[in-house]
């Protein structure tokens, strides 16, 4: 019986360097994001979250197709097996960061009273997403899994794929509901299975996806429920 190594979660790094350890941990974040997608999809049941998750799978499949077509090896001295063009981690994070930035720009409005606070919060979110994607991409170079060109191509492909996917599945359907893409989205939302699963498009009703209104409702019910207990004590 021959044994194989599952390289999906196996990362080799310089154990004498804390920085190398940090890069090894950061480079695993795309794997952790998949678990986050699943948890958010089940908990929120938002079509945008499910759509983003599906797009991530399509983007990964596209990466696999490109690798099989180009068949470019990894840089000299790399400990990884398989083809290296384009970097799947870099493409993954390029897609992830771009989709969220587009969503925050076009559909999400932070529930802050002061507009300057909203702009600051939005800018901070953009910076964090871009920095996260950039650090993951750099970690692939630092750990010698990919060359600079493989990483840059991965980021560019991920960003481009995300823009096209968001345009077709989110922006056009929500801006033009009577278009073909809009009708497909409406069917996905209103078919019996989706209704049974309680899948919704919260951002079509609330500018922040419903979080502020849901919290306000919880706050009122909480006060109403705890008032008798406060008076009796």
TrEMBL record:
<feature type="transmembrane region" description="Helical">
    <location>
        <begin position="20"/>
        <end position="43"/>
    </location>
</feature>
<keyword id="KW-1133">Transmembrane helix</keyword>
<feature type="domain" description="Phosphatidic acid phosphatase type 2/haloperoxidase">
    <location>
        <begin position="49"/>
        <end position="166"/>
    </location>
</feature>
<keyword id="KW-0472">Membrane</keyword>
<dbReference type="GO" id="GO:0016020">
    <property type="term" value="C:membrane"/>
</dbReference>
<protein>
    <submittedName>
        <fullName>PAP2-domain-containing protein</fullName>
    </submittedName>
</protein>
<keyword id="KW-0378">Hydrolase</keyword>
<dbReference type="Pfam" id="PF01569">
    <property type="entry name" value="PAP2"/>
</dbReference>
<feature type="transmembrane region" description="Helical">
    <location>
        <begin position="151"/>
        <end position="169"/>
    </location>
</feature>
<keyword id="KW-0812">Transmembrane</keyword>
<dbReference type="InterPro" id="IPR039667">
    <property type="entry name" value="Dolichyldiphosphatase_PAP2"/>
</dbReference>
<dbReference type="InterPro" id="IPR036938">
    <property type="entry name" value="PAP2/HPO_sf"/>
</dbReference>
<dbReference type="InterPro" id="IPR000326">
    <property type="entry name" value="PAP2/HPO"/>
</dbReference>
<dbReference type="GO" id="GO:0042392">
    <property type="term" value="F:sphingosine-1-phosphate phosphatase activity"/>
</dbReference>
<feature type="transmembrane region" description="Helical">
    <location>
        <begin position="119"/>
        <end position="139"/>
    </location>
</feature>
């Amino acid at each position: 019986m021959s044994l194989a190594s599952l390289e999906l979660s196996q990362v080799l790094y310089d154990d004498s360097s804390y920085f190398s350890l940090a890069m090894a941990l950061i480079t695993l974040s795309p794997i952790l994001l998949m678990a986050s997608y699943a948890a958010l999809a089940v908990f929120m049941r938002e079509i945008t979250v499910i759509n983003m998750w599906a797009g991530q799978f399509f983007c990964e499949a596209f990466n696999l197709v490109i690798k099989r077509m180009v068949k470019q090896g990894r840089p000299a001295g790399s400990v990884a097996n398989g083809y290296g063009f384009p970097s799947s981690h870099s493409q993954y994070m390029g897609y992830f960061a771009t989709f969220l930035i587009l969503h925050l720009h076009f559909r999400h409005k932070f529930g802050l009273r002061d507009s300057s606070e909203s702009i600051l919060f939005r800018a901070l979110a953009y910076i964090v997403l871009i920095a996260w994607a950039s650090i993951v991409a750099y970690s692939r170079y630092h750990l010698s899994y990919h060359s600079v060109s493989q990483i840059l191509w991965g980021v560019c492909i991920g960003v481009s794929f995300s823009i096209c996917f968001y345009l077709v599945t989110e922006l056009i359907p929500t801006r033009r509901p009577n278009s073909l893409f809009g009708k497909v989205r409406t069917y996905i939302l209103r078919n019996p299975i989706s209704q049974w699963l309680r899948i919704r498009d919260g951002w079509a009703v609330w500018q922040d996806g419903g979080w502020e209104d849901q919290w306000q409702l919880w706050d009122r019910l909480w006060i109403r429920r705890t008032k008798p207990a406060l008076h009796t004590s």
